[in-house]
């Protein structure tokens, strides 16, 4: 079985590497860029495996699985394969991973290890994950290796945010761009990896994931989904208290967010759910099927009520615009609590304008 069969998408990138290896035109440094959770890391690992196989067959991207390069690689013990990345929970790439701890500077770390000779007939392959989390000192420490990589060494850098990389790092790598996955691919991956309980959960998360398995995994968080249900139930009402809803949502947010960054991220999710709510209602009004997914009953109820209003389009448009503004506010560092209070207060006011006009007395 191919090592690539469990990876979805990115055929173009694979063809590019196949051709490049066949023509013996490999660069010494590549930079994989694309949204988080689309498979850049998985791609890099498979490529590294293929590059470390000592007995490649006709397809240079298919390692044999049996040789003195493959067997230790599969066991996680090939000395020619190096991996560094930002540890989970940390925001910055530890410089020690590149040049060793202070007391052993230059004697350990990736820059040292990659300079050691590979096994006979092999090469060194290093994955530098989360390269966009390097601060200036780390980037500068790494630069020398990147400028003059040892012979027979290949560096595969991975980053989600190209703008966060020092231009000096960027300019020394060949850029390989990765696109978001299709909704179908995300859905299939969620099911294949047993990350969801049901097809319905997989579809829900995949459709909102924007092609990222990372995003989809956040969405299957049961607590976040509970907040979505609460939000939908309130938005569907003719009269809800904007500030009351905001308060309830913020309580939920503080339970599931361990720090401010996470609170902002989850706050953005609530706003996206609100946009989803109004956008789906809009589709319903246009009688356009948004997808094969059945519409949420709360949205259906809301859309039905709106269909009796003459100003339905205007209200939906204004609600979506207002939500987009709130999201931009959070992006520009307006506190989450303030952004949500003002958003839901405005949405409640808009919603009251949608009440059926009472017959004149
Ligand atoms: Zn092999």
Secondary structure topology:
Layout: H1 11-22, E1 29-33, H2 40-52, H3 70-74, E2 81-84, H4 96-99, H5 110-113, E3 124-128, H6 136-147, E4 153-159, H7 167-170, E5 174-177, H8 183-192, H9 199-208, H10 213-219, H11 222-235, H12 242-256, H13 260-285, H14 297-306, H15 312-331, H16 336-352
Parallel strand pairs: 1-4, 1-5, 2-3, 3-4
Helix pairs in contact: 8-9, 9-10, 11-12, 11-13, 12-13, 12-16, 13-14, 13-15, 15-16
Textual characterization of the structure:
The structure is a single chain. This protein has 3 domains: 11-177, 3-Layer(aba) Sandwich (Rossmann fold), CATH 3.40.50.300; 183-220; 221-352. Helix content is 51%, strand content 7%. It is built from 16 helices and 5 strands. It has helices at 11-22, 40-52, 70-74, 96-99, 110-113, 136-147, 167-170, 183-192, 199-208, 213-219, 222-235, 242-256, 260-285, 297-306, 312-331, 336-352, and strands at residues 29-33, 81-84, 124-128, 153-159, 174-177. A 5-stranded parallel sheet has the order 2-3-4-1-5, covered by helices on one side. The longest helix is centred in the last third of the chain and has 26 residues, at 260-285. The model has no long low-confidence stretch (mean pLDDT 90). The site of zinc ion (ZN) has 9 residues, from loops.
């Amino acid at each position: 079985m191919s090592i690539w069969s469990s990876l979805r998408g990115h055929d173009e990138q694979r063809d590019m590497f196949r051709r490049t290896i066949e023509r013996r035109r490999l660069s010494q440094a590549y930079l994989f860029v694309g949204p988080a959770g689309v498979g850049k890391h998985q791609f890099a690992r498979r490529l590294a495996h293929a590059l470390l196989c000592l007995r490649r067959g006709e397809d240079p991207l298919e390692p044999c699985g049996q040789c003195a390069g493959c067997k230790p690689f599969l066991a996680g013990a090939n000395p020619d394969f190096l991996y560094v990345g930002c540890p989970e929970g940390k925001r910055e790439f530890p410089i020690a991973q590149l040049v060793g701890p202070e007391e052993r500077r230059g004697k350990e770390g990736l820059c040292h290890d990659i300079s050691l000779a590979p096994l006979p007939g092999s090469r060194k392959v290093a994955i530098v994950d989360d390269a966009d989390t390097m601060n200036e000192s780390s980037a500068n420490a790494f630069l020398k290796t990147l400028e003059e990589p040892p012979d027979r060494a290949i560096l595969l850098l991975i980053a989600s945010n190209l703008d966060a990389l020092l231009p000096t790092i960027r300019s020394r790598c060949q850029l390989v761009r990765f696109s978001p996955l299709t909704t179908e691919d995300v859905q299939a991956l969620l099911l294949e990896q047993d990350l969801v309980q049901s097809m319905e959960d997989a579809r829900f998360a995949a459709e909102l994931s924007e092609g990222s398995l990372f995003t989809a995994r956040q969405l299957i968080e049961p607590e976040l989904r509970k907040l979505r249900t609460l939000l939908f139930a309130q938005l569907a009402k003719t009269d809800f208290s904007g500030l009351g809803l905001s308060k309830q949502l913020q309580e939920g947010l503080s339970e599931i967010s361990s720090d401010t960054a996470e609170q902002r991220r989850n706050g953005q999710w609530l706003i996206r759910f609100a946009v989803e709510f109004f956008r789906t209602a809009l589709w319903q009004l246009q009688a356009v099927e948004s997808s094969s997914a059945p519409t949420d009953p709360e949205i259906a109820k809301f859309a039905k009520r709106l269909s009796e209003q003459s100003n339905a389009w205007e209200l939906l448009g204004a609600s979506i615009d207002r939500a987009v503004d709130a999201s931009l506010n959070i992006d520009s560092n307006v506190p989450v609590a303030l952004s949500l209070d003002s958003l839901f207060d405005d949405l409640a006011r808009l919603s009251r304008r949608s009440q059926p006009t009472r017959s004149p007395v």
